[in-house]
Specification:
Blueprint (H helix, E strand, L loop, with lengths): L4 H16 L5 E14 L2 E2 L4 E2 L1 E2 L1 E14 L2 E25 L4 E26 L6 E28 L2 E16 L2 E2 L7 E4 L2 E13 L2 E10 L6 E4 L7 E3 L3 E2 L2 E9 L6
Parallel strand pairs: 9-11, 10-14
Antiparallel strand pairs: 1-5, 1-17, 2-3, 2-16, 4-6, 5-6, 6-7, 7-8, 8-9, 8-12, 12-13, 13-17, 14-15
Length: about 260
């Protein structure tokens, strides 16, 4: 779907140009504050995990270039996203004379902080741009960092007798990168630095105030791959997890500016 973004931008730009030829142009800008409830569908080669949501903040500046019914609404935001994993799963090893069941319990939280640039195209039901609006468009994000913590346990039983148990907990930082090396994931969680996707929703403008509620859907896999050095043969790569940012967003902007 990423290759469709230039076409969407072009179509939106043509609509705005056609509208601008017949409407008065106004420009406004101002601070924007908001909240989001984010998550990330998460899976690897062995499991698809049950992920939960996290509450995060958004803050920055919003802009509105209005052409009557139509408007271009970019923004520059600091945005907190993330997800949780709370799941228990079992695996069974069976041989001719032995059966072992391993129960794994995961309790993990991840916070990913971004600078995001949403670029929305909006349509207002009223010709002056006030009142109810519909908006949609792409967004682009750059990972600044973040943090994570985990408390995981594993217990193996055979014939209802515990034969092995293991517990591990800790915390660390989220680091931007396409690859990570063996052992480095103990205190760092690697996530790809660049994010991009689509968002859409409803807005309502009352004079200088713009209230928006929307949903953003990341289209870029953020999972970093494991890279192992093989000496003269060069590095080999093992696919990492697959996950995509998802978020429900609510924001309020206060927009002021002279007429164009």
């Amino acid at each position: 779907m990423m290759h469709k973004l230039p076409s969407l931008l072009l179509a939106g730009g043509l609509l705005l140009l056609a509208s601008a030829a017949q409407a008065q142009v106004t420009f406004s800008m101002g601070p924007r504050l908001g909240l989001n409830v984010s998550s990330a569908p998460f899976k690897d080669d062995q499991h698809t995990y049950d992920t939960g949501s996290r509450l995060g903040a958004e803050a920055g500046f919003a802009f509105d270039l209005n052409f009557g019914h139509f408007a271009l609404q970019p923004a520059l935001l600091y945005s907190q996203k993330g997800f949780t994993i709370n799941q228990t799963y079992t695996t069974t090893y069976t041989s001719a004379s032995y059966v072992e069941t391993t129960r794994t319990m995961l309790d993990e939280e991840y916070r990913l902080n971004y600078v995001t640039i949403p670029l929305n195209f909006a349509y207002a039901l009223r010709a002056d741009g006030q009142g109810l609006q519909l908006f949609a468009g792409p967004y682009f994000g750059l990972l600044l960092g973040g943090n994570f913590k985990y408390s995981d346990r594993q217990e193996a039983t055979s014939q209802n007798v515990v034969v092995r148990s293991f517990a591990d907990s800790g915390s660390g930082n989220v680091v931007g990168g396409d690859y990570y090396s063996p052992g480095s994931a103990n205190t760092k969680f690697y996530s790809r630095s660049k994010d991009a996707g689509l968002q859409f929703g409803l807005g309502y403008r009352k004079r200088s105030f713009l209230l928006q509620a929307g949903y953003s859907m990341g289209l870029r896999d953020l999972g970093a791959d494991l890279q192992i050095s093989n000496g003269i043969a060069g590095p080999s790569t093992i696919n990492g997890p697959t996950y995509y940012n998802r978020a429900f967003q609510l924001s309020l902007a206060y927009l002021l500016g002279p007429k164009g």
